[in-house]
Write a structure and sequence with these properties.
mainly alpha, 2 helices, elongated, membrane, Membrane protein, DUF4235
Length: 90
Protein backbone atom coordinates (compact mmCIF):
# COMPACT_ATOMS: atom_id res chain seq x y z
CA UNK A 1 0.00 0.00 0.00
CA UNK A 2 1.33 3.42 -0.94
CA UNK A 3 1.88 6.09 1.65
CA UNK A 4 0.23 9.48 1.40
CA UNK A 5 3.57 11.08 0.51
CA UNK A 6 4.13 8.61 -2.34
CA UNK A 7 0.66 9.35 -3.71
CA UNK A 8 1.33 13.08 -3.63
CA UNK A 9 4.74 12.63 -5.26
CA UNK A 10 3.22 10.55 -8.07
CA UNK A 11 0.53 13.13 -8.98
CA UNK A 12 2.75 15.23 -11.29
CA UNK A 13 4.20 12.08 -12.85
CA UNK A 14 0.73 10.70 -13.55
CA UNK A 15 -0.37 14.02 -15.06
CA UNK A 16 2.68 14.07 -17.33
CA UNK A 17 2.05 10.45 -18.32
CA UNK A 18 -1.56 11.32 -19.14
CA UNK A 19 -0.54 14.18 -21.41
CA UNK A 20 2.07 11.99 -23.07
CA UNK A 21 -0.45 9.20 -23.59
CA UNK A 22 -2.89 11.65 -25.18
CA UNK A 23 -0.22 12.98 -27.54
CA UNK A 24 0.89 9.49 -28.55
CA UNK A 25 -2.69 8.32 -29.06
CA UNK A 26 -3.44 11.37 -31.20
CA UNK A 27 -0.47 10.68 -33.46
CA UNK A 28 -1.32 6.99 -33.76
CA UNK A 29 -4.96 7.79 -34.58
CA UNK A 30 -3.98 10.24 -37.33
CA UNK A 31 -1.75 7.61 -38.94
CA UNK A 32 -4.33 4.84 -38.61
CA UNK A 33 -7.09 7.05 -40.02
CA UNK A 34 -4.93 8.07 -42.97
CA UNK A 35 -4.05 4.42 -43.69
CA UNK A 36 -7.62 3.17 -43.42
CA UNK A 37 -9.47 6.00 -45.15
CA UNK A 38 -6.86 7.68 -47.31
CA UNK A 39 -7.89 11.06 -45.85
CA UNK A 40 -5.68 13.38 -43.83
CA UNK A 41 -8.38 14.52 -41.42
CA UNK A 42 -10.90 12.42 -39.53
CA UNK A 43 -14.51 13.63 -39.54
CA UNK A 44 -16.12 15.17 -36.51
CA UNK A 45 -19.76 15.09 -35.51
CA UNK A 46 -20.53 18.45 -37.12
CA UNK A 47 -19.03 17.67 -40.52
CA UNK A 48 -22.05 18.02 -42.81
CA UNK A 49 -20.35 16.38 -45.80
CA UNK A 50 -19.58 13.10 -44.01
CA UNK A 51 -22.05 10.31 -43.33
CA UNK A 52 -23.03 8.67 -40.07
CA UNK A 53 -21.02 5.52 -40.78
CA UNK A 54 -17.77 7.39 -41.36
CA UNK A 55 -18.24 9.59 -38.30
CA UNK A 56 -19.11 6.68 -36.00
CA UNK A 57 -16.25 4.57 -37.40
CA UNK A 58 -13.78 7.40 -36.75
CA UNK A 59 -15.04 7.82 -33.19
CA UNK A 60 -14.82 4.07 -32.52
CA UNK A 61 -11.27 3.81 -33.85
CA UNK A 62 -10.21 6.90 -31.93
CA UNK A 63 -11.77 5.63 -28.69
CA UNK A 64 -10.12 2.24 -29.06
CA UNK A 65 -6.69 3.73 -29.70
CA UNK A 66 -6.94 6.23 -26.84
CA UNK A 67 -8.09 3.54 -24.42
CA UNK A 68 -5.33 1.10 -25.36
CA UNK A 69 -2.58 3.72 -25.22
CA UNK A 70 -3.86 5.18 -21.93
CA UNK A 71 -4.02 1.71 -20.38
CA UNK A 72 -0.55 0.76 -21.62
CA UNK A 73 0.95 3.98 -20.25
CA UNK A 74 -0.86 3.64 -16.91
CA UNK A 75 0.27 0.03 -16.55
CA UNK A 76 3.86 0.96 -17.43
CA UNK A 77 3.73 3.75 -14.85
CA UNK A 78 2.47 1.34 -12.19
CA UNK A 79 5.26 -1.12 -12.97
CA UNK A 80 7.85 1.66 -12.82
CA UNK A 81 6.43 2.82 -9.48
CA UNK A 82 6.66 -0.71 -8.11
CA UNK A 83 10.28 -0.97 -9.22
CA UNK A 84 11.20 2.41 -7.74
CA UNK A 85 9.29 2.26 -4.46
CA UNK A 86 8.70 -1.44 -3.90
CA UNK A 87 4.94 -0.91 -3.61
CA UNK A 88 2.17 -1.12 -6.16
CA UNK A 89 0.34 2.21 -6.56
CA UNK A 90 -3.30 2.49 -5.53
Amino acid sequence: MSTKLEKIAMKPVNIALGFGAGAIAGMVFKKVWKLTSGQDDAPDAHDEERGWGEIIAAAAIQGLIFSVVRTAVARSGAIATKRLTGTWPD
